[in-house]
């Protein structure tokens, strides 16, 4: 699946979920749900935001891995060979469930600074 095909699949699976905005990032296309990043599609695969509590469980699925380099807590990376058929929608379901629990953010709004780690 090419990066454009992956982005089209993500776009289709997120249709009707909420306020979706697309932003160029990570060498591909990021998808924001109500101002919060939910996923990013690129030639390297799919970055999915599952939340810290579900990250370990999601990483146990075939095709899932941590991002190379800097680890992003609450996110997993899905290798392109694992993104066939209905797989994109299957990967997005837990991301949708998690991001819908977050408060909406306006474009350009930065999260409040907190002590400790952020998600």
Describe the structure.
- Residues 14-97 form the TfoX N-terminal domain.
- Pfam families: TfoX_N.
- It comes from Mesorhizobium delmotii.
- This is TfoX N-terminal domain-containing protein.
- InterPro entries: TfoX_N (IPR007076).
- The structure is a single chain.
- The model has no long low-confidence stretch (mean pLDDT 87).
- The chain has helices at residues 3-14, 52-59, 87-99, and strands at residues 20-25, 28-33, 36-42, 45-49, 64-65, 75-78.
- The chain has one domain (3-99): Alpha-Beta Complex (Aspartate Aminotransferase, domain 1).
- The chain has a 6-stranded antiparallel sheet with strand order 1-2-3-4-6-5.
- It is globular, with a radius of gyration of 14 Å.
- It is of the alpha+beta class and 119 residues long.
- Strand 1 (20-25) and strand 2 form a beta hairpin.
- It is built from 3 helices and 6 strands.
- 28% of the residues lie in helices and 25% in strands.
